[in-house]
Amino acid sequence: MDILVLLKQTFDTEEKIVLKDGQISEEGVEFIINPYDEYAVEEALKIKENHGGTITLLSLGPDRFESSIRTALAMGADQAILLDDENLFGDEYTVSQVLAKVIQEQSYDLILAGHVAVDDGSGQVPQRIAEILGIPFIGTAVKIELDDQHVTVHRDVEGDTEVVEASLPVLITTQQGLNEPRYPSLPGIMKAKKKPLSRPDVEIEKEAIQAKTETLETYLPSKKSAGRILFGEINGQAKELIQLLHNEAKVI
Ligand SMILES: Cc1cc2nc3c(=O)[nH]c(=O)nc-3n(C[C@H](O)[C@H](O)[C@H](O)COP(=O)(O)OP(=O)(O)OC[C@H]3O[C@@H](n4cnc5c(N)ncnc54)[C@H](O)[C@@H]3O)c2cc1C
């Protein structure tokens, strides 16, 4: 069973977002594996334990992604591909086109990815890739059962569960509840340093991966002022509330 895991590095979820010159500042920031991608890595490891095979991590991002890739290799993945050429970076369209192009050159039975990246949060990349590859897509998996030809997936649908079958190869995205990602062991960390990490050139025409969207502005949410509690007799409170909604909130 050849398994590809799409792995994105994101800001640590505890990080405070700071803007500098209209851009999100990466100064002093801790980076982690996108939490949903950790479930994908863990599930790949469990499938490999039962079915054998090879786990390859695939990432598109800058050099700093290597630290997260090494963590996933320390968890037990076998090898990794990092596409760190800035010419390949762009919007969801660009990222999916580039990743799909590289996937087409790999051998795979199963592709696992997070169902959303906790930073940019578009939840688009895996679906787009499955569409380009012409393979089934199953989102938000909380249980995956597999034989050599088929997969049965229990998927989270807003708190309910839907059971879906597909034949391999298939692309599945992972949801919280699927598993408990393991911590890398010390021997795992030592071994990970020597596991293969390739940074291949991707031959793809610039026009074919031209971003379809443009970020016009990035800004923080406006600061919320403290709430107000009205006191006193109920008719007086109602009158004061109307006056506040009219004069201050200007919503009536
Ligand atoms: C270095 C860098 C430069 C960028 N430059 C631009 C830019 O110029 N213009 C612009 O509009 N946006 C830019 N982005 C944002 C980029 O478009 C989004 O990160 C990307 O499209 C993925 O969208 P998402 O994070 O919302 O992924 P989602 O679709 O929410 O991610 C779902 C899953 O897809 C997989 N996945 C997503 N992205 C990657 C990846 N890069 N590598 C491997 N797996 C992945 C993961 O498994 C992830 O859990 C940049 C991002 C990075 C990291």
TrEMBL record:
Cofactor(s) recorded for this entry are: AMP
Question: What is this protein's function per UniProt?
Answer: The electron transfer flavoprotein serves as a specific electron acceptor for other dehydrogenases. It transfers the electrons to the main respiratory chain via ETF-ubiquinone oxidoreductase (ETF dehydrogenase).
Q: Which GO terms describe its molecular function?
A: electron transfer activity
InterPro entries in UniProt: ET-Flavoprotein_bsu_CS, ETF_a/b_N, ETF_b, ETF_beta_N, Rossmann-like_a/b/a_fold
PANTHER family the UniProt entry points to: ELECTRON TRANSFER FLAVOPROTEIN BETA-SUBUNIT, ELECTRON TRANSFER FLAVOPROTEIN SUBUNIT BETA
Gene Ontology cellular-component terms for this entry are: cytosol
Q: Which lineage?
A: Bacteria, Bacillati, Bacillota, Bacilli, Bacillales
The protein, known as: Electron transfer flavoprotein subunit beta
Origin species, per record, is Tepidibacillus decaturensis
